[in-house]
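Quick log. Single chain, no ligands specified.
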Amino acid sequence: MEFTIRDTITMQTLRPEDASNVFAVIDQNRNYLRQWLPWVDETDSPVVTENVIASWEKEWENGSGLVLGIFQGNRYIGTIGLHDMKGSNNSAMIGYWLAQSEQGGGIMTACVRTLVDYAFDSLSVNRIYIYCADANKKSRAIPERLGFMLEGMLQDGECLYGQYYDLAVYGMVRRHWLRLVTPTSEHKQAAWEYRQAYIDCGEAHIHGSGGFLQAFDYESWLAKITAAQTAAQTGWVNCSTYFAFVADSIVGTIQVRHCLNEALHNTGGHIGYGVRPTERRKGYATNMLALALEKCRELGIHRALVTCDKDNIASAKTIQKGGGVLENECTEEDGNVVQRYWIML
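-> predicted structure:
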């Protein structure tokens, strides 16, 4: 089994012949991993690793788990897995670790997202939970970035080498999982309901939609945004527009511009997004922005500009949470002040 994450990053089924490489990476990162993982001292030889990989193969065969290696090209850099897959509750736990040298680039966030997609879409899992030590801020940032709910704290939930740690419990259920979807004709009904929600609230614009609110009909709008991905357009840049779906409902629209012209560099930015009026303040914007940044990476954009009106405090917080650093403010002709944030990818 293999999943392509981005560029040269893949998740692959581990085999016993991978044991020596897996052990070597664990050994190189032993002091770092030992801070939060209980099995590090026990993993003292490639033979131990080979036996563990064999046990993972049996878990997949009996339907209780799925463990995958994370690779950069042919180089092993970490592990991610679904554990405790329970038939009656249709739930599973995700665990993960990444070599210290590979952290900070969003690799694990992208891997967790892909595994959640697979669990919900292909394995009929209904609930996924993640345990993180309360003090492990890097690990906790991943479910938070993906929109998981903090469900509670387990006091002294884990004992690591004689010391107890509280565990933060994060959960996600299938009906709340957000996906970016390229619009097609099949989405017409859901899209028209999404558009009507803005009209009912008296709003005159749907951000990140390519002018959907002003479209005469769905088909012409769909043709327009489809062409905008590749067609040469005088005065415009190519862009990709997506629906953000939760279950069968569209909760937002988001647009990724493939490059910047002068106007976008000044106030528009690489990314525009809007959240359905009735679905705001639920964390969807943060998750949508994280997904859009993944799309930017795929396009080879290494530094993304994201903007918002100065008085839009909620949007500013979303951008800052996504890693945005304020460069400056720009005043438009009508006096509106726009804040310009850059996010390194």
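The chain has a mean pLDDT of 94.
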